[in-house]
Every structure is written in C-alpha cells, then in structure tokens.
Amino acid sequence: MNVNDIPVEETTQQKTKVDYLSAARQARSMQNWPSVEQNYNMLLQTDPQNIEAIFYSAYSGAQLSLFSRDMENRHQKFNVLVNNINLITEFHYSADEWREPLEMIGRDLIKLTRSEFLYKEQTRDDLGNSLQTERFDTKQMIIKMELTFLQLLYKIMEQEPQNYLFTMIQVHAEHLLSVDYAGQTYYHEILKNAAILNEQARVGTTLQGNAADYAHYTDVIARINVLKETYDSEMSDFKDLQNYSDEKASLKHSADRINNALTEMERLYEELKQFLTARNIQYHEFVVIPAKLKNSEKYASLSPSGWGLASLAVGLFNLLIVCFTFGLGSIPSLIGILL
Prior knowledge:
By secondary structure, this protein is mainly alpha-helical. A two-stranded antiparallel sheet has the order 1-2. It has helices at about 10-30, 35-45, 50-65, 70-90, 100-115, 115-120, 135-160, 165-180, 185-205, 210-240, 250-280, 295-300, 305-325, 330-339; strands spanning about 125, 130. The protein is built from 14 helices and 2 strands. α3 (about 50-65) runs antiparallel to α4 (about 70-90), α5 (about 100-115) runs antiparallel to α7 (about 135-160) and α5 runs parallel beside α8.
C-alpha cells in the first residue's frame, strides 16, 4: 500500500501513539511518575489494549503512593495495579508481541520488590518489642502484585510456551520463594509445571521437521493433559466425599477413577519415553509422573487406614477402662499412640 493511500486520521493516530509511548518511556527512565501516568493514560485512549500502558498507568500511581504514609491511598493504588494486571489476562495472548513489554515490566517489578526503602525500617516500643509498620503491609501488597504478574506469565505460557517466559517465571517464582514463606508450595508448583511446559515445547520444536511424529507427540501430550484435569477434579471430589461416612460406595468409585487416570497417564508417559528414545531425542525425567504405584498400592493410599481404625477402636475402649480403673488405662493408650 502506498503511504498516500493511508487515511490521514489513521496516520495521525499512529503518530500520536508513538509520541505518547516515547514520552511515557522517557518520563519512566527519569522516574517522573506523574508524567508517566499522564502519557500512558493518553496512550490508552487510542490503544486501550496496550499492555505496557495498562500496567504503567497504574504502576506510576503505586510508586507515588510509596512517598506518602497514607496507607488507605497506598492500598487503593496497589489494588488498581493488581486489577490492571488481571485485566491483561483477559486479552488474546501473544507471547511474541508481548515479549518486550513483559520483560520490561518484569525488571521493574523485581526492582520494586528489592527496594531497601520498603523493608529496612523497624520500630520498637518502650519494652524493645518489634512493632508492625506500614512497611510490612506494603511488602504484602508488593508480594500480591508480583504473584499476580507470575500468574499472568504462567497463563500465557500455557497457551504459547516460550523459553523467555519460563526464564521469567523462574526469576519471579524464586524471588517470591525468598520473601514469602506462606506461598512456597504454590510457587514450587508453578515452577514445576512451567518446567514441564518448557520441556514439552523444546521437544515439540525438535520434532516439527516430521509432521507425523509431531502430530503423534502433541496428541499424546494433549491426552495426558486431559487425564491430569480428570485426576485433579476427582481428587477434589474424593476429599469432599471423605467427610461423609455414608458415601463409601461413591468414595470407592472416585478412588477407582483416580487410579485409572494415574494408570493411563503412566502408560502414556512410558509410550512417550520409548517414542523419544527411538528418535534419539533427549528428554528430562521430571516430565514423567513421579508416582510409580500399582493399582492396589494407589487404592490403599486413598482408602481408610486399617491401623488408623484400630487406633480409634482402642482409643474408645480406653475411655471405658479409664472410667472404671486406675493405671490400666495407660496400656491401651500406648497401643493407640503406636497404631
């Protein structure tokens, strides 16, 4: 298309977007947060799905709130930022197009979370006891913000696995592991799942030269993922059913479905290993399901424990003995503890 054929309005709008983006980035490099907020807000009027503008229009407000002791205002600004990050998850993901702004945002988040301004102050009362200050509260806000960004990265990676996303997930998950004890299990889970996605993408890229091999590989991976969803759903139902003593039949059916999903996953993973080995493609063992249990062992791990029931029975018997004797009650108590 000839430049002269482009409508004047479209050309002007494009120039306006470039001007606002350039002005916003320059203001950000100088940490002129009011100007950052203003220019990114103007950019959003012409480009409402610009993720850089969505993030930094709120990030600038959060930065400004750090210079005030008004905690209500700080909460409000950080909540807006978290909401804006969540808003991005509703857009159509584009890992390639979003790479530059995502890496930029990631670097600034890490800078913010490592700021000494937030954590160094410590106040004590007359007795020397440490008092909670607004800095602890602010730290929790920032952890929530970084967690929301980590979840965004993982959602994009689920749709379009790319190595740069995995690298970013590693950085943010490991940083959160170092500052937030409460979320450690969750962060480890994200790291493990992201590593599996990254490995699957790497192997898939290696196989793309052969259409039949690539189709078979992606089909097996898709079937495994369906089984994982089934397993997670059934485990949730199983835990609910355990609370009802009259649901023994349903509990057994649920356990059977869980075991069947695990067995089929193990079979598919074994097929996958043999498939990749035959093609001399290296793979990491961590993608293989860790549980290598036989059906009976799996079901035993989900069924009520016989020793636990025996312990309960002895404990109840002990109550009767204690009511009528002295000293003898300690014998069944010890048995109950051992069981």
